[in-house]
Amino acid sequence: MCLACSTPVRGQAYGAECLAGVLGPDVPDAIEAKVHRADRTIRTLGLAVLATALPWSRFGPGSGAFGAWTRSGRWSLVAALAAIAGLALATARRRPRLRNPTWDVVTASLGALVVVASLLSVLFPPPFSRPWLGPWFAVVFGASAFAASIVAARTAEEPTSAGI
């Protein structure tokens, strides 16, 4: 058994096969809940990435498809890059060595960056334009990703504080 597959319980290391027998019948539900929370973060960040494909302004730069990806929309580009980085990190978190709650905090920070950059894009749109759909959807999905990552980080810390 490798270090990534072992789970310490009461001073001994167990693999995934034996863990349910040691901890009881409700452990698979807890494992499924953690996977469900990770999937929720991936879904919301994926939707934030899709929001960058919407028009970010009514006219002028950013008014077409992939409106966040314009040079004149500085904050929209920051939001788009943060959404992609968060999605990549959340997807990579499925690997056992990245299942540390610290990575959930990093993912939450990227979700918050999507929110802040999208709001700044609304407040400071490109010259001679007005914000439209993209930044508002990015705000909603970035905030959802932030919340899902914080919940995942908090639930990942609970078993260690309970002394299991």
Provide the β-strand percentage band.
under 5%
Mean pLDDT: 83
Q: Main beta sheet: strand number and arrangement?
A: 2 strands, antiparallel
- When the domains are counted, the total is 1
- Structural class of the secondary elements? mainly alpha
Order of helices and strands: EEHHHHH
- In quaternary terms, these chains amount to single chain
What is the overall shape? Answer: elongated
Our measurement of the CA-to-CA distance between the termini, rounded to an integer number of angstroms, reads 20 Å
State the total count of DSSP E strands.
2
Q: Give the radius of gyration.
A: 20 Å
Low-pLDDT runs of 5+ residues are 159-164
Strand order within the widest beta sheet: 1-2
